[in-house]
Please model this.
Amino acid sequence: MFFDLGVRDFLDRAETVYPDRVAVVDEPDQPAPSWGSLTYREVARRARAQAANLDALGVPAGGRVAVVSHNAARLLVSFFGVSGWGRILVPVNFRLAAAEVKYIVEHSGAEVLIVDPELAHLLDTVTAKHVFVLGRDDEAIWGGDGTPRPWDGDESATATINYTSGTTARPKGVQLTHRNLWLNAAVFGLHTTLSDNDVLLHTLPMFHCNGWGMPYAVTGLGGRHIVLRKVDGAEILRRIDEHGVTILCAAPAVVTAALDAATTWTGEVPGRDRVRIVVAGAPPPTRTIERVRAELGWEFIQIYGLTETAPLLTVNRMRSEWAGLDPQEQARLLGRAGTPALGVRIAVDRDGEVLAQSNHNLDGYWENPAETARVQEGGWFHTGDGGSFDDGYLTIADRKKDVIISGGENVSSIEVEDALNSHPAIREAAVIGTPDEKWGELVTALVVVEGEVTAEELIRHCRGYLAGYKCPKRVEFLDELPRTATGKIQKFKLREPFWRGQSRQVN
Ligand code: AMP
Model:
């Protein structure tokens, strides 16, 4: 017997088994009216209504629906209301500048564009055949009790396109199929021992690789979603306390925010011996891991992966063999990226690049066959990360690709260099990541200029083109940039003074 795997399976099960359970507690403090608490019955009803309304608009299966939103119950429902009946959800990073959102909406060919009220200004620049604002247009999106046209399901159909900044000047659209998302969510749930008792705090942006797949996994098991719109350490602790949170996923910068908030928290830090925190995006410092376990009393789990791999590739979780070791040594062992997740094969090629095979690696980049072929050469996905794979454990040590990771989000050096180069005073510019305690890596521009220009002016200029987090935080003026005989800028030379003394070349 063969059934196509589909993201609607997760919602169907929740509705069948747990119709009256609270599925999601929406963010109370947001510009659109909060949806409060919704049961799985209600989530399923709204997802069906959304699909039926898309039918009525004439959006066909395979049609793209872009949503630019902070974390919200409305976005969570759209994971099912859009993809569940064969359309393709394009969740867009809400921090992007208007020009960047415009590129993504046009490149993906989205027929429908839905934006958060705080981002309504985007509609001055970006448009689509059908445009909606969350809250204001809820009736058009989720109104009615419509029954959607049946969709037969096809596990190899694209369910989401997630744009990610990488090695090209423009973001690439990662096409993830129903099969990719299903298997990633199931394997992720297995390795984090997810159950119907779990309460997930959405500390990770849902747009970022579909919240790593947790929106599907938690729904399928009948767990509860607690929506968090803005990351704030004290608020994270407060919600963990209020909602009995058991699991959260975060980049190292969010972990630091929670640790900082805990130092001024009165009384016992909430979640001790209950919460597990799943961390990825950058290698967390060993000291941070030790502090999470000692000061917060939360279980620390590290995963490694990319948007292109849905994302789960490796997982590192405390194992019984380490029980007798001292906490420092345990933290060091947990500091590695981890072991291949079930069904994932990891290898390191001769140049030290990490390669992966799995059933949740991307189908391809949307309308970009050249990049698709490049990253899948030889039947392996090329991660662009450098590392070693010993005794079943992967360690990430450096990055082969020209990407900076700041606060868990990818920044393409080329994109920032393009923005800088469009300033008339720039003769040449190179952008690198430099180690930073708070953000992991800081976007740093090294420039050669003609005439008078200040760092502030250059940063302001970049803001016209790029999201704030991509703009240089540090600008250094040089007389010239080091180049090879063939004229290529030698970034390793530029990086050297900043990274001297660091044990690894990513942070
Ligand atoms: P993204 O596609 O935006 O999720 O970014 C993926 C990139 O984040 C990877 O290629 C790595 O460079 C980095 N990354 C993710 N998880 C880890 C980790 N546990 N350790 C080191 N780097 C990581």
Summary: The chain is about 30% helix and 25% strand. Residues 164, 209, 280-283, 302, 304, 306-307, 311, 337, 383-385, 396, 399, 405, 410, 506 surround adenosine monophosphate (CB under 6 Å). Residues 26 and 36 are 5 Å apart (CA to CA).
